[in-house]
Specification:
The chain contains 9 helices and 15 strands. By secondary structure, it is of the alpha/beta class. It has a domain of about 130 residues: Spore Coat Polysaccharide Biosynthesis Protein SpsA, Chain A (Alpha-Beta Complex), CATH 3.90.550.
Length: about 260
């Protein structure tokens, strides 16, 4: 199953960093948060990634084009044949497709632009700025059993995010409200599973996934939810970045599910 990662936004709330590079390339512990997200999925055997690039997308392309240089020790020998030697070569079982989805395209529009890469398959989707110890196989299993068009994950951090109204059987979203300012209810944590039918709800580059598409799906009873009671943290601000850095520096980062 392919994993689609939204990585094209401007990241205006963390502009101290994002004016130099796209938000998903801001580093935690010396590696882009995008890398951390991919490592989470890869731990569970999901290694086929489609990254929706936009703002400063060339930075993301350069990172993967020179992945070995970024992740290994290297010797440059200029005295003889201008030779490069890579030490302790770190490899990943990844296939990474980088797609330019426009600089100003909205979230739904970006997904719409990668339709030909996922074709008629179920796929996963997440944002390029949040990490979690969510159990991905359980999320996928629930989605397949539910028959929903979209299943999104829910967490309980409160405030700032899309608030979910969940029915009594804890499996269906019956109401979706974008980014309530002060609320301690379940929020959209971003780790989603989608059926190709979702493309019928994405009309153009200006479609915001978190508004009309998810609202319509919830009204139609086609939006499922997976409640995640564990760790989840996004990186919206420098304060968020500092929190993630402190977790990583402790050696016990909650989202580090890989060895």
């Amino acid at each position: 199953m392919k994993v689609v990662i939204l990585a094209g936004g401007l990241g205006t709330r963390i502009s101290e960093e994002s004016h130099l590079r796209p938000k998903p390339m801001i580093e935690i512990g010396g590696s882009p948060i995008l890398w951390h997200i991919m490592k989470i999925y890869s731990h569970y055997g999901f290694n086929d990634f489609i990254i929706c690039c936009g703002y400063k997308g060339d930075v993301i392309k350069e990172y993967f084009a020179n992945y070995y240089l970024h992740t290994s020790d290297v010797t440059f020998d200029f005295s003889a044949e201008n030779r490069m030697e890579v030490h302790s070569n770190i490899t990943e079982p990844w296939k990474v497709t980088l797609v330019h989805t426009g600089k100003a395209t909205m979230t739904g529009g970006r997904i719409r632009r990668i339709r030909r890469y996922v074709e008629n398959e179920t796929f996963m989707l997440t944002y390029g700025d949040g990490v979690s110890n969510i159990n991905i196989p359980d999320l996928v299993r629930q989605h397949k059993d539910s028959g929903k068009t979209v299943t999104l994950s829910a967490s309980l951090p409160g405030g700032r995010f899309g608030v979910l109204e969940i029915d009594d059987d804890n499996s269906t979203v019956v109401g979706f409200k974008e980014k309530a300012r002060e609320n301690s209810d379940w929020i959209n944590a971003g780790f989603m599973v989608m059926e190709p039918e979702v493309f019928n709800y994405l009309y153009d580059d200006y479609t915001v996934l978190e508004r009309t598409p998810l609202e319509r799906l919830s009204e139609e009873g086609k939006l499922g939810v997976y409640k995640h009671y564990g760790y989840w943290q996004c990186m919206d601000t420098q304060r968020d970045q500092a929190v993630l850095e402190s977790h990583w520096a402790s050696g016990r980062a909650p989202w580090k599910v890989w060895e």
